[in-house]
Structures are given as structure tokens and as C-alpha cells.
Design brief:
The chain is an alpha+beta fold and 108 residues long. The chain has helices at residues 60-70, 92-102; strands spanning 6-12, 18-23, 26-27, 30-31, 35-38.
């Protein structure tokens, strides 16, 4: 919303969208006469960088185990290879996100 009105009610749907109702005429740059649906925000859903779940992280062995599983290997103690939990696996984005978080970055 912007400063052209007031939001009187909010509701979050089961899909995470936010419904807003009130006395306003715009939602951001869009025309929205007293009602707007805001898309669900992106959720950070990355797994832990302790990929091998040994309680030591970050450590080089987590990277070794991640690539071993990514390449088709089996590690019964390891997390699943869908690091970013987007239900697409295996994919290059899992590798990028894992290394990004491992290096101290935030989950995209």
C-alpha cells in the first residue's frame, strides 16, 4: 500500500498470499480500489550447511559429501540433495545455493 489510504483488514490465504482491504486507491504502483492481493513472499527454505549431519559445520567434508550425493552417491546420514527445497533436483541451483550459504551468505 502507499500513503493514499488506510488498510483496515488483512488476511493470509493458505497459499501465503495476503489479502488487504481498506480505504485506499493504490497498492504500490497498481490501481487497487479498496482491495488488493499481494503475492506470497519468497520463503527462505534452504537446508542446513551441515549436510552430513555430523554436528561439525561448516567443514570441508560437508562439501565433499554434498557433491558425492549430488553425483548419485548414497549417504544415509546426509540431507537430501534438494538444498533449496524447491522440489527440483538435482539441479545446478542447489549447488549454487549450497555454496553461497556455506560461504556465509543468506539463503536466496
Amino acid at each position: 500500500m502507499n500513503d493514499s489510504g488506510v488498510v483496515h483488514a488483512l488476511h493470509v490465504t493458505t497459499t501465503g498470499d495476503v489479502l488487504a482491504g481498506g480505504s485506499f486507491d493504490r497498492a504500490g504502483s497498481a490501481i487497487a480500489r479498496n482491495f488488493s492481493i499481494l503475492d506470497a513472499p519468497a520463503v527462505c527454505a534452504c537446508d542446513s550447511v551441515d549436510f552430513n549431519r555430523n554436528g561439525v559445520f561448516p567443514e570441508d567434508q560437508d562439501i565433499v559429501d554434498f557433491f558425492f550425493v549430488f553425483g548419485g552417491g548414497v549417504c544415509s546420514a546426509c540431507a537430501d540433495i534438494d538444498f533449496n527445497n524447491n522440489n527440483v533436483l538435482p539441479e545446478t541451483q542447489d549447488v549454487i545455493d549450497f555454496l553461497h550459504v556455506f560461504a556465509g551468505g543468506n539463503c536466496p
